[in-house]
Write a structure and sequence with these properties.
Number of domains: 1
Number of helices: 10
Order of helices and strands: EHEHHHEHEEEHHHEHH
Radius of gyration: 18 Å
Number of strands: 7
Strand content: 5-15%
C-alpha cells in the first residue's frame, strides 16, 4: 500500500478537491497533507535561494519544515512516503515572481515516486470549475487576464454558475466531464488539437509551463487550466481515456 504526502498551498479548496478525486479513484492508500501557507514563488525561493542553485540532492521535507505551524504539522514531515505531490497556483500576480526558479522545479519534480510531482493550476485552484456550462465549447479559449479589475475567484463565482461550488457533491459524471475539459485544454496548449488524446504524458508539463509563461510575458494572461484534477487521468491513463472514448455519451463533454 502506498503512503502519499500532499504538499498544498492552501487548506480549503485543495484538500476538498483531492478528497473527491480519491473517492472517485477508490484509492485505499494512506494520504497526509502538509499546508505550506505560502505560494509557489515563496517555495521556489526556499528551495533555490540563488538563481544558479540546482535541486539535485535537495531534501524537500527538511527544506519546508520551517513553514510548519506546530509540532503536529512538523511531525507529518518526519514520516516516510512512497509518493509526494505538490499542488500550487501559478500566481501570475506575484509582485516578485521567480518563474526561472519554478521552471527548474517543474523539471525536477516530475515523478511522485522519486523526487515528487508538481501540479500547477493556472491561474489558481478555482480553475477546475471555470466553465460556463457542461459541455463548454468556449473553454478551449478561456483565459485569465493578469490586470483584470476583478479577482479570479470573483470571476469564477460570476461565470461558473452552472458548476456547483460544493466539491464534495461532485459525482462520477461531473468529475470526469471536468477532467476531460482540462485534458483537452492541455492538448491545445501543447500545440495539438483540442480533443481527447490517445495517451497522456506527464513529462509534457514542462511544455505547458513554458507556454503559459510566454503567454504571461507577451499578452499579460494565461490560459485557464487546472492540472491537479488530471490526477484522475494520471492514476490510470489508458483506463480513463478508454472509458471516456467508449462511453462518451455518458459524459458532458
Amino acid at each position: 500500500m502506498s503512503n502519499s504526502l500532499f504538499i498544498l498551498e492552501g487548506s480549503r479548496d485543495e484538500p476538498k478537491l483531492l478528497n473527491s478525486l480519491f473517492r472517485e479513484m477508490k484509492k485505499s492508500d494512506q494520504q497526509k497533507c502538509f499546508f505550506f501557507h505560502s505560494n509557489l514563488h515563496a517555495l521556489a525561493n526556499i528551495l533555490l535561494p540563488d538563481d544558479e542553485d540546482e535541486l539535485d540532492g535537495i531534501d524537500l521535507l527538511l527544506a519546508i519544515k520551517g513553514n510548519s505551524r506546530g509540532n503536529a504539522e512538523a511531525e507529518v514531515l518526519n514520516l516516510r512516503y512512497t509518493d509526494i505531490f505538490l499542488v500550487f497556483d501559478f500566481e501570475p500576480q506575484e509582485d516578485s515572481p521567480v518563474f526561472n526558479k519554478i521552471r527548474k522545479m517543474v523539471s525536477f519534480f516530475n515523478d511522485s515516486t522519486n523526487n515528487g510531482k508538481l501540479y500547477i493550476n493556472y491561474p489558481m485552484m478555482q480553475s477546475y470549475r471555470h466553465l460556463i456550462a457542461l459541455p463548454d465549447p468556449s473553454f478551449e479559449y478561456r483565459k485569465a487576464v493578469y490586470d483584470s479589475t476583478k479577482s479570479y475567484k470573483q470571476l469564477v463565482e460570476e461565470e461558473a454558475t452552472a458548476i456547483p461550488s460544493g466539491i464534495q457533491s461532485y459525482d462520477h459524471v461531473l468529475l470526469y466531464s471536468l477532467a476531460v475539459h482540462h485534458l483537452k485544454k492541455r492538448e491545445k496548449l501543447l500545440g495539438r488539437r483540442y480533443a481527447l488524446p490517445d495517451d497522456y504524458d506527464e513529462s509534457e508539463d514542462e511544455k505547458v509551463f513554458d507556454f503559459q509563461c510566454s503567454m504571461l510575458k507577451e499578452n499579460q494572461c494565461c490560459y485557464v487550466l487546472n492540472t491537479s484534477i488530471l490526477l484522475l487521468v494520471a492514476y490510470a491513463p489508458r483506463q480513463f481515456i478508454h472509458e471516456v472514448k467508449t462511453h462518451a455519451v455518458n459524459y458532458d463533454i
